[in-house]
């Protein structure tokens, strides 16, 4: 492993105008970090990564690297980019074990962070390092959000989150688990108790329904619910996942690992149209997931999924998807999992005044995460809709600065 990492680091051309950094949403200073690493300064390299992106150890594993850093590497033109993700993983993992942040808290600078996903964790690290007295309120028993309760452990080992939590606690961050902000503790209660600013990073946890007959039957489940705790589900021998994004791939691969014999993905378009990333599709195929293309579900019943076949046609030069008459069939299956995206819950906005949301229920903010209520900030999926970890980090870095500026001026 170490030999491979060194060999990859040595392949870096140290470009004067590094496209890899430009291609990364948080502009990771890749060539500087590689330089430090190759010169025996792994702790400095790790520190640089961490202070640029507190979730560097996570991003090294789950970022769509082919789209960002590795896809922008000049060597990718020759089909062989530097495997920066592996180098980042090695350095950031090492640093996470070594780092030793000490508390330096000003009790007059209390900040409430609602939600401990990538957005909340990023804000907590940045502001705790600047002396803020942080309390994180988390609905679930452990921190991480989707990192803990969505992305399967075979893609992201959960001990990284435990180690990040340890570092937060070392820095003096208080964590209140199993605490839903909204109906019981409200935003007004938080202001009453002396929090100078409140951050909302609650993500998108409402599954989007298909609104089909049969959706409430006992063998039908939603992807985001299933991934929270797959062990409590009995899916039978055969399951059908409806949808073809990355979440659908995670569900399908998890179901196979949890003992389901046959897992099918049903998608109304073709393989080339699947929204999941290429390598997630490749992994799904390698794991044994099977695909049913050009079928659109019209009803879910005790036997399985009733569908109609579809076809792509060109109309006025534009491609359209049409359903074909008299092609109705039933895809027999023991269970069905719907993976058709997620939207936000309204626990906070329905129990407080002044926080504007858009027609999708997403919190409205300016570019720096200021909501329409003074002193309340937001970022991550609850503002942008479902995106990626690194994009939540990018946005949250700006929001941390805006909170700092707001509290300092008060
Ligand atoms: C299955 C799945 C796989 C994914 N895979 C990838 C991937 O491989 N790579 C990638 O980059 N991105 C991936 N994503 C997207 C990525 O995980 C999200 O963009 C990211 O987690 C958003 O971070 P967040 O902090 O905004 O929200 P979340 O991660 O959703 O965290 C929100 C937190 O707020 C808590 N919360 C909610 N409401 C309240 C409340 N009222 N009170 C207290 N706490 C509350 C929740 O319990 C949760 O812990 C995936 C998403 C899913 C669903």
Topology at a glance:
Layout: H1 2-11, H2 19-23, H3 30-38, H4 42-52, H5 56-62, H6 69-72, H7 84-98, E1 110-114, H8 118-129, E2 133-137, H9 146-149, H10 159-170, E3 174-176, H11 187-192, E4 197-200, E5 206-207, E6 220-222, H12 223-228, E7 238-242, H13 246-257, E8 262-266, H14 278-287, E9 290-292, E10 295-300, E11 304-315, E12 318-323, E13 329-332, E14 335-338, E15 342-343, E16 376-378, H15 381-384, H16 389-409
Parallel strand pairs: 1-2, 1-4, 2-3, 4-16, 6-14, 7-8, 7-14, 8-9
Antiparallel strand pairs: 5-15, 10-11, 11-12, 11-13
Helix pairs in contact: 1-7, 3-4, 4-7, 5-7, 8-16, 13-14
The structure holds flavin-adenine dinucleotide.
What's the short story on this structure?
This protein is α/β, with parallel strands linked by helices and 410 residues long. It is 36% helix and 18% strand.
Question: Would you write up a description of this structure?
Answer:
The chain is an alpha/beta fold and 410 residues long. It has 3 domains: 2-98, Orthogonal Bundle (Fumarate Reductase Iron-sulfur Protein, Chain B, domain 2), CATH 1.10.1060.10; 106-205 and 344-409, FAD/NAD(P)-binding domain; 207-341, FAD/NAD(P)-binding domain. It is built from 16 helices and 16 strands. α14 links the parallel β8 (262-266) and β9 (290-292). The structure holds flavin-adenine dinucleotide. Flavin-adenine dinucleotide binds at residues 62-63, 114-120, 137-140, 145-146, 150-151, 180-182, 201-203, 224, 227, 246-247, 250, 347-348, 380-382, 386-390, 392.
Helical content class: 25-40%
Strand order of the largest sheet: 3-2-1-4-16
Radius of gyration over C-alpha positions, nearest whole angstrom: 23 Å
Bound molecules: flavin-adenine dinucleotide
């Amino acid at each position: 492993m170490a030999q491979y990492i060194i060999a990859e680091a040595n392949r870096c051309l140290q470009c004067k105008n590094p496209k890899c950094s430009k291609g990364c949403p948080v502009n990771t200073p890749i060539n500087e970090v590689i330089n430090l690493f190759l010169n025996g300064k792994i702790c400095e390299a790790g520190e640089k990564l961490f202070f640029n992106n507190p979730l560097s150890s996570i991003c090294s594993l789950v970022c769509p690297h082919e789209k960002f850093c590795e896809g922008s590497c000049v060597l990718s033109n020759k089909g062989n980019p530097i495997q920066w993700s592996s180098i980042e993983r090695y350095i950031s993992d090492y640093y996470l074990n070594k780092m030793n942040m000490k508390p330096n808290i000003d009790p007059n600078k209390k900040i409430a962070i609602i939600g401990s996903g990538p957005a909340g964790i990023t804000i907590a690290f940045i502001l705790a390092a600047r002396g803020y007295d942080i309390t994180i309120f988390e609905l679930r028993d452990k921190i991480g959000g989707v990192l803990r309760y969505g992305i399967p452990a075979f893609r992201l080992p959960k001990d990284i989150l435990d180690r990040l939590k340890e570092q937060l606690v070392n820095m003096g961050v208080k964590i209140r688990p199993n605490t839903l902000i909204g109906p019981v503790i409200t935003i007004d209660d938080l202001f009453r108790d002396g929090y100078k600013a409140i951050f909302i990073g609650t993500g998108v946890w409402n599954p989007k329904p298909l609104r089909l007959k049969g959706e409430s039957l006992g063998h039908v489940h939603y992807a985001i619910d299933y991934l929270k705790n797959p062990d409590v589900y009995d899916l039978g021998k055969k399951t059908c996942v409806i949808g073809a994004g990355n979440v659908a791939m995670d569900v399908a691969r998890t179901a196979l690992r949890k003992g389901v014999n046959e897992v099918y993905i049903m998608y109304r378009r073709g393989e080339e149209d699947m929204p999941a990333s290429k390598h997630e599709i490749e992994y799904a195929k390698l794991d044994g997931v099977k695909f049913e293309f050009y079928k659109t579900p019209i009803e879910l019943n005790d036997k399985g999924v009733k569908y109609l076949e579809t076809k792509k046609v060109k109309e006025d030069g534009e491609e359209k998807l049409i359903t074909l008459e008299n092609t109705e069939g039933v895809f027999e299956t023991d269970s069905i999992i719907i993976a058709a995206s997620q939207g936000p819950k309204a626990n906070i906005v329905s129990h407080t005044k002044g926080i504007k949301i858009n027609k999708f229920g997403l919190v409205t903010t300016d570019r720096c995460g200021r909501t329409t209520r003074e002193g309340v900030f937001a970022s991550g999926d609850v503002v942008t809709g479902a995106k990626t970890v690194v994009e939540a980090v990018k946005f949250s870095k700006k929001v941390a600065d805006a909170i700092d500026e707001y509290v300092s001026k008060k």
